Amino acid sequence: MIWSKRGISVSIDALRAIQSLLPDAEIVQSDAPADDSYGGAYGEAPCIAAAECVEGRTLRAHRVVGEPEVRFAGFLDGIQRARIECHRNGVPIVEGRVAAAIRVRVNRRFTTWGHRIPIVSRRLYMPLVFLQCEGRTEIDGFDIVDTSYDDRTKALVSRHPGALRAVAFERVGRDRDEAERNLAELWCSAGDAEPLFIDGGISGSGRVASASCAVGVIKSHQTLFADGDALEVVMSLRRGERSSVFAPPSTRRHSVISWYLRLRDPRGHDAMFGLVRIEASVGGDVASRANEISRWVLAEAAPLSLPDSRWDRMAYGIRDCEQFLRAIA
Amino acid sequence: MTQALGRVVATERKPNTPHEFHFWTALDSPVGIGTIVRVDGRRPVNGQIPRVYGIVTEGFSYTDLVTPLHDVMSHDGAPESAGFASAERAEIRLYSAAVLRQIPEEPLQPVPMGDVFLALEEDVNIALRMDGYLRDGSNTGIPIGVYRAGGTDATIFLDADFLVGPEAAHLNITGVSGLATKTSAVEWLLSSLFAHFPDSRGSIAAVCFNVKGPDLCFLDLPGKLDDGDRALYDKMGVPARPFENVHYYAPYAARGYALNTLRSNEALAHNVTPLTWGLREVLQYAEVLLNRDDIDAKADALIDFITRSVIDQSFTDPMLSRAHVVQSFADLEDWFRDVLRGLENGNKESWRTHHVATIRKVRNRLSNISVRCAGLVTDSGPVSDLPFGEFEDRATYVVDVANLEEDAQDLIFARVVSKLREHLERRDLGVKHVVVFVDELNKYAPGDGPDTYVRKMLLDIAERGRYLGLVLFSAQQFRSQGHKRVVGNSGTSVFGRMDPDELAAPGYAVLSPATRTKLATLEKGQLMIRHPHFTQPIFVRFPRPAVMAGRLGAEQFPQGGEVSLDVAVYRSLRARDSSVTLQAVEDAIGLHDEGDVLRALAVTLKERPSDVLGVFRARLPKRITQSVQARPQVAALRGGRGDDPYGAAR
C-alpha cells in the first residue's frame, strides 16, 4: 500500500491485479463516497424488537452486586476495510480486507493468543456478471468474491452502483463475522476455556452461543430489545446497574440470554452513554450469571479506550485488539 | 545464535540514516543508553547481508494515550485506583542508536530494516574497530574497562599507538570530584598500561604530580578490592596489585627538616627523596616565577648575562672587590651586593650596559625566589632531583607538590617537564615514553587568563609531545574551562560523572540528551570513553585501583611531625641503612652547622653508598679540635695576711 498525493491509501498490487483483468477500469483516487450519496445507507435501520424476559416477569433495573472482578482472559475482535479501488463504467470493484484476533491478557498486558498468526484476508469483491468476466475466482493471488447476486434472494443485484457497493460491503462484513466466529469457536473448543470477551453478539455460532466461557458485548444499539416501560428502564439505568435478563428473538440465530448494563454515569450525556448489551449462553441461574458476568464487564471499564469515539462502551482489550489488527492488516 | 531483542523501525518522520537508526524492543529487554547492538539486514548488498553495529543514544517510551487527561479520567482522578485497572495500556520502548560501523562499509547506505540483537563480545570488537589492533602478533590493546549490557561482558581496549603515540596521544579525564573518577581512573589506567604496553613499543614510565591531598601518596601500598573488582582485573588481565616501582619526591617544609608531603610517615620514608634545587636549576626557569612586568627586555638581558657569565665560574671585574664563584642564591646575593657597591662607589649609573635600576630590580626578584619557594630552593644547600637519565621501565615517579605555594608548584612542573622533554629529545632519559599526569588542568592550562609559561609548556606537550614519547594524562573538573588546544589534542577522552552545569556547555551538544543525563548520573567506577577508533562514546566499568586510597593511607600512616635536625637526618639515613642509630647520627652531627649537615646528607643520599653513616661522616667538614688547656698558675702579686681581708694596719 502507498499513499497517493491526496493522502488516500491506494493498493498498488490490488490495482495491478484488477487492471490485468480489466485494463480499462478507472482508478478511484478519492476517499469512499458518503453513505447517502448512493441514495441510502447499507446498514440496518434503528428498530425496537420484542424480547422475552427470563428474569422475573417484567424488565427492571438491578444493581450489580459485588466488586468488579477481572476474569476475562481473552478479547476477540475483528476489523474490516472496504474500498472501491476502481470502477468500470460505474461498476464498483471493491477491495476488502478482514482480520480477526484474540488478544490474551498476561500480567495485565495484551499479547496475541498463543502467538498464532491472526486471521487476515484480502479479497476483491466484484459483480462478475456486470464486468463480463464470470467464472473468475482469482487474479494474481487475490481471491475474487462474486457480488452479482443477493445471497438471500439469489436474484441478480441491481446495476445501481450503490446497490452493488452495498452488496460488496456487506460481503466484506460477513467475511469478518466468519473470521471472528472461527476464532471464537477455536477458543471455546478448549476444554477449560477461560472467559472470552467478544466484541459483538455470540448468537451467530451455535458452538459459541452455547459455550459458558463466551461473553458477547454489544456496543451498538441499532435494535433495542425493550419497549414501553421496559425501554424507559433501560434508558434510565444508572452506573453499575443492569436490566433483567431477557431472551432475544432467535429467528435466524442461536438462543442466548441477554441484558443491558450501564458502564458509566450517563448524567450529562446521551441516553446510550456507557450502555452495552451483553449476550451469554443459556443455562444456570440467569440472575446470578448476569450479576457475575456484569461484574466482569464492569472491571473492564478502565483503562479508558480513548481516543476512540466509542470509549464509553468499548473495553480497552477490544481497543488493543483493534489497534493490533489495524497494524497488521 | 541469540534471540532478536528488537526490530528496526523507520517512519517518514523518523527515518533511518547511514549514521542513525531506530528500533523497538520488548518492555523487559536489557537495552539501555550505551548498549551496543547489532542489526542483521534482510536483503544482501553486493552479495553480502549487511550488518550494522550501533550504540543506543536515546530512548523513548509512550503509550496509546493521546492526552494525560485520558488517564486521569480512566481512574476517576484517583491515582491509587490505577493499580486496580484490569490492564496496562499498550506501551512502547523505542530507541535511537548511532551507527558505530557498517559491514560492508561501502556502499554506505541507510540502516536497513532488520532484527536487532544484543552485541556479543566479538561484535563489540568489530563494532569498535578493535579487531584492527588486537590481532595476534601486533596486539597494541590497553584495557580501559569492561563494557556490560545484558549478558555481555566485553573488555574495551585502547590502542597504545593512539594513547601513547605516535599516531595520536594524550588522555584527558573530566569528572566531578570525589566520585572515583579522575585519580582512580588514572591509577587504574597506569596499572593497565604498565601491564599491557607492548614490548615492541619500548619502555615506559610515569611522572605524576600530586597536586592535592594524599591522592597519589600511597601508590605502592595495597588497597581494598572486592570480588567484583578482582573479577574485572582477571577479565582484563591486569595484576590486582599496587605499583611495584614507585619513587616519591617532595621538597622540604619551609621551616624545618621534615619533607613537605603527606607521605612523611617514618614507615614510608624508604622511597621518598627530597626535592631541592639550587640557583642553576632555578635560574633556567626564572620566567616561570617572574611575571611579564618583571621581565622586560633589559631584565631578561641581565638574567641571561648572569646565567651565561656569572653562574658556576670565577667572575672577576675591575669594579668588584673580589673574584666571585656564584653557585647558590647566597653567592648571588653577595655578587649583587658587590656590584651595587661598586656602582655606588664609582658613582656610576650602569655597569656593562645594565642600568643600576635594572640590576636592583633583578636582584630583588631573584633573591625573593628562595623565600617564595622555601624548602624547594636552597640558598646554599645541596641539589636533589629526579633521576633524569636513569628512569626505569614501568616505574612511577610521584612529585608531591600538594602543600606548596603556587609559584613553587609552577616551578617544579615547568622544570620537571622541560627536563623530561630535553632528555627525551636526546633519547637519554632511560625510557622511551613518559606519561605525565597533571590533575587540575583548569588551573595550569585554563581556557582564559594570562598566557603563562606552564600553559605554553602544556600546549607544547599536547601538540608535539607524541613525537617525543612525552604523553600528557590530564584531568580536570570542567573540561570546558580548560585550554581548547590542550584538551582538544587529547586523542582519548574519559568522562566520569559530570556536573550538569558543565554538561550544558556547548562542547557537549554533540551528545544526545540521554547520554548527557547518563553522564550526570554515572555510578562510581563507570566511565564514558572517546577514542580515535570509536566513532561514538562508549560506557565502561573499571575496577577500583589496587592501591591504597589517599584518605585511608593518611589515616594509617599519619604525617610525621616537625622534627629536629638530628632526627630528620637519622630518618633519612635509616631509610637507606636500618643499622643507623639516632645516637650515632647525633654524635656525627655534633656541633656542625645546619648547612653543612644538610649538604652532607644530600650527597650521601645521592651517592647511595653501602656504608651510609660512614659516608655521611666523611662528607661533613672537618672541624678543628680545641683542646682545653689548664689555666696557668699565676703568682700572687702580694702575699696575704692571714684572714684579715682588709689587711690590718701595722
Describe the protein's architecture and organization:
The complex is a heterodimer of chains A (329) and B (650). Chain A contains six helices and 19 strands. Chain A has helices at residues 12-21, 161-188, 206-209, 228-235, 286-299, 316-328; strands at 2-3, 9-10, 26-27, 47-48, 52-53, 61-63, 74-88, 91-106, 109-112, 119-126, 138-139, 142-146, 196-199, 214-218, 223-224, 241-243, 246-247, 257-262, 275-280. Chain A has one domain. With 329 residues, chain A is α+β, with helices and mostly antiparallel strands. Residues 1-8 and 33-42 of chain A have low confidence and may be disordered. In chain A, the strands form five sheets. In chain A, strands 3, 7, 8, 9, 10, 11, 12, 13, 14, 18 and 19 form an eleven-stranded mixed sheet that branches. Chain A has a two-stranded antiparallel sheet with strand order 1-2. In chain A, a hairpin with a 2-residue loop joins strand 11 (138-139) and strand 12 (142-146). By secondary structure, chain B is α/β, with parallel strands linked by helices. Chain B folds into four domains: 1-68 and 88-127, Thrombin, subunit H (Beta Barrel), CATH 2.40.10; 153-214 and 226-247 and 393-552, 3-Layer(aba) Sandwich (Rossmann fold); 280-372, no CATH class; 563-619, no CATH class. Chain B has 21 helices and 22 strands. A ten-stranded mixed sheet of chain B has the order 12-11-17-10-18-19-9-20-21-22. The N and C termini of chain B lie far apart (138 Å). The model of chain B has no long low-confidence stretch (mean pLDDT 87). The A-B interface holds A 70, 72, 105, 108-110, 299-300, 302-304, 306-307, 316-317, 319-320, 323 and B 27, 64-66, 70-71, 73-75, 81, 85-91.
H-E order of chain A: EEHEEEEEEEEEEHEHEEHEEEEHH
Measured as a percent range, the helix fraction of chain A is 10-25%
Shape of chain B: elongated
Corresponding CATH architecture of the largest domain in chain B: 3-Layer(aba) Sandwich
The whole-number mean of residue pLDDT values of chain A reads 87
What integer is the average pLDDT of chain B?
Answer: 87
Low-confidence stretches of chain B: none
CATH topology of the largest domain in chain B: Rossmann fold
Determine and state the CATH class of the largest domain in chain B.
Alpha Beta
Largest interface: A-B, 18 and 17 residues
CA-atom Rg of chain A in angstroms: 21 Å
Distance between the termini of chain B: 138 Å
Helical residue percent of chain B? Answer: 25-40%
Beta fraction of chain B: 15-25%
Radius of gyration of chain B: 34 Å
CATH homologous superfamily title of the largest domain in chain B: P-loop containing nucleotide triphosphate hydrolases
| Assembly context of the chains | heterodimer
State the major sheet of chain B.
10 strands, mixed
Principal-axes geometry of chain A comes out as globular
Tally of helical runs of chain B: 21
Q: What's the domain count of chain A?
A: 1
